[in-house]
Design a protein that fits this description.
mainly alpha; 8 helices; Ribonucleotide Reductase Protein R1, domain 1; 0% strand
């Protein structure tokens, strides 16, 4: 048994404990700025995965959907437009399966709501996760 190999593990545990103490003081002081968070979330093609999912649901193989989205994003970078800011004609130049209903999935709200499974971002899932976390905390008091 080599005790030397355990020292980094104990050091890591001490570091995690220190971090948890710091976070315990920081978390209550956080003041989320919803408007800034929303604007930040709209940048960086955050709905690109939603576009890929949309195209796949219309029968396009994922490999091809990945290429379609890559070209769409490259076009957006070139033109300074987010996916949701492109016209239907602009999006259709990358795939004819894209129709008017695509804009529902290219919103942040649509993107969040689409992940309606355990651990997902849909509001009902987040509320359920918060409930489970609170129950877990209460059970440890």
């Amino acid at each position: 048994d080599n005790q030397e190999d355990k020292e980094p593990v104990f050091d890591a545990i001490d570091t995690v404990k220190d971090c948890l103490r710091a976070f315990a003081d920081m978390i209550p002081a956080i003041q989320p700025r919803k408007e800034k968070m929303y604007e930040a979330a709209k940048r960086g093609f955050s709905t690109a995965t939603d576009l890929a999912d949309y195209v796949v649901r219309r029968g396009v193989p994922f490999r091809d959907a990945h290429e379609i989205v890559g070209k769409s994003v490259a076009y957006g970078v070139q033109t300074g437009k987010d996916l949701s800011e492109m016209s239907l004609a602009e999006l259709q130049q990358f795939s004819p399966v894209i129709e008017q209903d695509v804009f529902a999935v290219l919103t942040l709200e649509g993107s969040v709501a689409a992940r309606n499974h355990i651990g997902g971002t849909a509001p009902a899932q987040v509320k359920a996760a918060v409930g489970r976390a609170r129950a877990s905390i209460e059970s440890r008091k």
